[in-house]
């Protein structure tokens, strides 16, 4: 239960006042800017307007399968102005967090369950890694003799991995189980992954064998709604948290991310969460503001 | 806390009285009969003695990777008398349970995460299945369009699978998520698997992505310490539970299995659990009897 009341941005006056309050907007992409390969109506105009007002735009996504460069290609394909430094995916955030927050030792390695989105970002930060595509070929027999502790592995980082297999689970488990100093990190903890109008197991589910076999939680989950991702963004861009607002379509990730990070939040109703959820008497996650769609800000453009 | 006191079988008189009390002994194998490929001292003699006294012997294991025939080969290799009908692995128990307890419809299929140990036993019981080795080749792209609900899949059965991959998780999740009548069964719930003097992720951990993505527990876990395995054994062999005793080396699986099933239990100290655990003031799982090793019964042989 909460007594917070969400302000609905229904008039142009309210929309202008909202935009004047902030210098930086963190934007979720799917369900906010686009729906798969289609840009939502009015979003082109709204983003251009925010840039014309000198606002800092940052695109924040939990997807760990693509590097920032790969993500940028989608913006370009859809004709949306964006720059690689404005993109904050959970893969980049994980590499940034290891390097700049945890000060990960240069003589240690990260064991990766995840794809090139993660390894490209680790390499760009100069962090040594093993696993990932090198372990896509799984074990062919119950001979586990080559899966042994490795004191050089200082962290296991688990993200979405279409090529996850028993070898990867067994190695990651062995590094963590044998070495209490080995960090256990997840890029994000989404239990499902939306695709094809349905859902499939997400990163939080692919990490579950490790959580279950180790009988303990990860040391740190980087992505939304957790604070490490926001810590990275604030640190990198020197943001004033009082003048920063998270814009997203999911209460449990985007809006909770804003709340956890002590920044303002705006819910758009073009994705997962609906108006009735925040108006319910027992609503537990309530944004500061909400609006039907990000494109609705286009009405205030002169 | 419990007030149950375990009786230690230290004298020949106590050992003879113990054996006279029971008609049937359910035996765990690893840590009781053998240690990997070595038969523990005195076990050959003890098992022969029990047979000479007309006792029913049943070998009960949670390992689901081997069919009963494959398991029998190990007994033969180690020179231990055993018959295929005496072997109760969690793969066979799952097939038996589906057929004889759940009355699984002949026009429905089971989706299997697991190896030939499971599919051989399902085939032997005349149960249709898909998955398993047919899905060992995982997805090569994020195109999930071919992973669709299938109303003919009436159950997902998950056991140990060295070839587990994203395709298997995604299919199993889709069948369960799209169809509330689809049963979700595990052969067993051991979170770790002992091998090479270490431990690795076990069946309970490999099923964790489904449990996490679905956000619910399986309908039924067949293997020790759960009751379905004992229900199958009692049903098949018409055992008198009052004259049946479980013999094992693990308190949390074997002895709990005896307790859950309302039969007597004997702990041997040649495997995982130790004497101090049952003598502790806060012991929560206590066997009716315990003995240093199964081979110690050899002292009563005339």
TrEMBL record, chains A, B:
Annotated keywords: Hydrolase, Magnesium, Metal-binding
Stretches of the chain forming a coiled coil according to its record: none
GO cellular component terms listed in the entry, alphabetical order: cytoplasm
Position of the signal peptide: none
Organism of derivation: Ambispora leptoticha
Residues annotated for substrate binding in this entry: 224
A molecular function (GO) term: phosphoglycolate phosphatase activity
The organism's place on the tree of life at top rank: Eukaryota
UniProt cross-references to Gene3D superfamilies, sorted A to Z: HAD superfamily/HAD-like
Name listed for the protein in its UniProt record: 4-nitrophenylphosphatase
Residues annotated for Mg(2+) binding in this entry: 28, 30, 249
Active site (UniProt): 28 (nucleophile), 30 (proton donor)
Reactions the enzyme catalyzes: 4-nitrophenyl phosphate + H2O = 4-nitrophenol + phosphate + H(+)
NCBIfam families: HAD-SF-IIA, PGP_euk
Cofactor note: Divalent metal ions. Mg(2+) is the most effective.
PANTHER family, alphabetized: 4-NITROPHENYLPHOSPHATASE-RELATED, HALOACID DEHALOGENASE-LIKE HYDROLASE DOMAIN-CONTAINING PROTEIN 2
Enzyme Commission number: 3.1.3.41
Record-linked InterPro entries: HAD-like_sf (IPR036412), HAD-SF_hydro_IIA (IPR006357), HAD_sf (IPR023214), PGP_euk (IPR006349)
């Amino acid at each position: 239960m909460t007594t917070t009341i969400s302000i609905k941005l229904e008039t142009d006056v309210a929309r202008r006042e909202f935009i004047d309050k902030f210098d930086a907007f963190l934007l979720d992409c799917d369900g906010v800017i686009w729906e798969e390969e289609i840009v939502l109506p009015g979003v082109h105009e709204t983003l251009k307007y925010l840039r014309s007002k000198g606002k800092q735009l940052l695109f924040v996504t939990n997807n760990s399968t693509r590097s920032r460069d790969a993500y940028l290609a989608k913006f370009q394909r859809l004709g949306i102005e964006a720059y690689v430094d404005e993109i904050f995916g959970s893969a980049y955030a994980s590499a940034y967090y290891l390097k700049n927050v945890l000060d990960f030792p240069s003589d240690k390695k990260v064991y990766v369950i995840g794809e090139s989105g993660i390894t490209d970002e680790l390499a760009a930060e100069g962090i040594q890694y093993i696993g990932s595509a090198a372990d896509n070929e799984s074990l062919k027999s119950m001979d586990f003799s080559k899966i042994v502790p490795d004191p050089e592995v200082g962290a296991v980082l688990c993200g979405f991995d279409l090529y996850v297999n028993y070898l990867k689970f067994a190695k990651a488990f062995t590094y963590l189980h044998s070495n209490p100093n080995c960090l256990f990190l997840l890029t994000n903890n989404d239990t499902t992954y939306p695709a094809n109008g349905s859902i499939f197991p997400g990163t939080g589910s692919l990490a579950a064998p490790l959580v279950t076999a180790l009988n303990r939680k990860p040391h740190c989950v980087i992505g939304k709604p957790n604070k490490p991702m926001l810590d990275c963004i604030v640190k990198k861009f020197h943001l004033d948290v009082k003048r920063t607002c998270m814009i997203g379509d999911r209460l449990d990730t985007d809006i909770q991310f804003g709340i956890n990070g002590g920044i303002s939040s705006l819910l758009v109703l073009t994705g997962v969460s609906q108006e009735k959820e925040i108006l319910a008497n027992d609503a537990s996650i309530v944004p500061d503001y909400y609006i039907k769609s990000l494109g609705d800000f286009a009405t205030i453009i002169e």
